Amino acid sequence: MTPSDKTSAAQTGLPFRELPLAPAALANLEQLGYLLMTPIQAASLPIALAGHDLIAQAKTGSGKTAAFALALLTKLNVRRFAVQALVLCPTRELADQVSQEIRRLARSEDNIKLITLCGGAQMRPQISSLEHGAHIVVGTPGRIIDHLERGSLKLDAVNTLVLDEADRMLDMGFFDDIARIAGACPEERQTLLFSATYPEGIARLSRQFLREPQEVILLEQHQGSKIRQRFYEVAEEQRLPAVGLLLNHYRPVSTLAFCNTKQQCRDLLAVLRGQGFHALALHGDMEQRDRDQVLVQFANRSCSVLVATDVAARGLDISQLEAVINVDITPDPEVHTHRIGRTGRVDQEGWAFSLASAKQLRRVAAIEKAQGRAVEWHSLAELQGDGDLPVKPLVPAMLTLQILGGRKEKIRAGDVLGALTGEAGFTKAQVGKINVTESSTYVAVERGIARAALKKLSDGTVKGKRVKVFLMQGSR
Ligand code: ADP
Ligand code: MG
User: Of 168, 185, 217, which one is at a domain's C-terminal end?
Assistant: First the structure.
């Protein structure tokens, strides 16, 4: 069967109720607004729910998490206090996102315990959580191995092993770690492998750890109408200023700008800030805490532009990315496809802009060849606008307040929302995303009320306690 045959049934957008799922699970999906399966879900869920091993390949943002989450949740026996499902992810951010999605999907069932085990966090709290028992573990290979070595994690009751973003895990050199972890799981188990691309190593992984797997491959659908790609030819000295022109012209709420080098990231950040944009950069050598703070501010709409290299952006999953800018053309067309695939996710349209110098036209030709069609060229002059009229600066809608205190202090999102909408008198609509981490809580509020909200929170209490609060204005 060719891959396109395999997808044809899925394209019709089947409802979840076609699947053998419990009524409560179906009701929960409906509440989450998941009415129709995405193509990868429609193609892989029947196989996974039937208990087969599976290799599923589909682009980022296609809904792979729910495809394995529903399969592992269906098999879970809540009364059995043992780790029954293990999900391996390449990075801590992905593990956190996968954990969140599984929790949302598990809401129809009480008392399902999930633990996220990743490096960069302390061992001790993880060990004590494990002692209390867990049904599902999501984590990165390195930390899972640490726990196996200490004997704090037992995998002998695992009936579902998921390798999520298997291609990335291979890129990051986790093959041997995966082998060790799979070896610690029972042989009688279901193994589900998910990947955005299908490099050589995937076949090797599958031969070694999967049993008679069925394959589902969904071809890239980037050429569809969802991602609108435009190329601009630039002289080298126009490249960085052109990013600002694009932002002012198209005014996307959230943009990821890809640079080929760290130095280019630093230069672009300086240029953008000089032009008054609220921009942040992600680089590989950043401390986890700083990385988290950047991601929180970008995802909650306190920052308009995130500047990053491919390596630093690895594993990033931000929904509602309106635009991707290729500040430079990458020599590898597959990297290009991956970059632009980050915009225009489920049900959304996205822009992908690419800046190419005359010297890079050969790289553009390689992209055209890989995409099977010519790219669309536009001229920078279109972006200059009315010349004399000053453009209104692109200002993010929100600003982030950092509260010192998080899960450790038993602060929950509801407590912060309550503090702001209760006595402080703000409306729910003025409060955005609330992220509670181990020791800090980040709350996005409308820019216009940020100072007032800061004062109210500092003068009042959260959960009956006084808290220290800061405005995060690092993006300018
Ligand atoms: P992937 O792992 O393929 O990159 P995710 O599992 O992270 O993709 O899903 C991308 C986004 O799509 C998430 O925000 C998720 O909540 C949403 N999503 C997944 N399945 C559906 C669905 N059937 N209907 C609507 N939204 C969905
Ligand atoms: Mg995923």
Answer: 217
If you take atom 18 of ligand 1, which residue's CA is the nearest one? 63
Per the listing, tokens 């492998």 go with: 193
Q: What's residue 217's pLDDT?
A: 81
- CB 94 near ligand 1, within 6 Å: no
Same domain, 27 and 172: yes
Q: What is the pLDDT of residue 7?
A: 34
- 252 and 301 share one domain: yes
Q: Are residues 121 and 266 in the same domain?
A: no
What's the confidence (pLDDT) of residue 422?
86
Atom of ligand 1 nearest to the CA of 34: 24
Site of tokens 């695939």: 341
- Residue ranges of the chain whose pLDDT lies below 50: 1-12, 222-225
Phi/psi for 79 (5° steps) reads -80, -10
Q: Please work out whether the CB of residue 248 comes within 6 Å of at least one atom of ligand 1.
A: no
Strand order in the sheet with 227-233: 279-282, 305-309, 255-259, 323-326, 350-356, 227-233, 377-378
Give me the CATH number covering residue 154.
3.40.50.300
Contacts of 342 (CB under 8 A, 6+ apart): 60, 61, 256, 313, 316, 318, 321, 324
Ligand with the closest atom to the CA of 345: 1
pLDDT at 370: 82
- Using an 8 Å Cβ cutoff, are 443 and 416 in contact? yes
List CB contacts of 54: < 8 A, sequence separation 6 or more: 44, 47, 48, 191, 192, 193, 210, 213, 214, 215, 216
Residue type, 377: W
Choose which residue among 30, 34, 94, 221 to substitute to test ligand 1 binding: the one with the highest number of ligand atoms within 8 A of its C-beta: 34
Q: Identify residues whose C-beta is under 5 A from ligand 2, the ion.
A: 64
Question: d(Cα 4, Cα 40) in Å, to the nearest integer?
Answer: 12
CB 217 within 8 A of CB 2: no
Q: Quick check: 254 and 93 in contact, CB under 8 A?
A: no
> Any alpha helices (H) in 151-287, and if so which ranges?
166-171, 175-184, 200-209, 239-250, 262-274
Q: How many CB atoms lie within 10 A of CB 101?
A: 19
Give me the pLDDT at residue 224, please.
47
β 227-233/377-378 pair status? parallel
Q: What confidence tens digit (pLDDT) does each residue in 191-224 have?
A: 999 998 877 788 889 999 999 999 888 765 544 4
Distance 114 CA to ligand 1 centre (A): 19
To test the ligand 1 pocket, which listed residue (62, 91, 226, 316) has its Cβ within 8 A of the most ligand atoms?
62
Q: Residue 330: which domain range?
A: 224-383
Answer yes or no: do 173 and 282 share one domain: no
Q: Dihedral (C-alpha) 457, 458, 459, 460: value to the nearest 10 degrees? A: 40
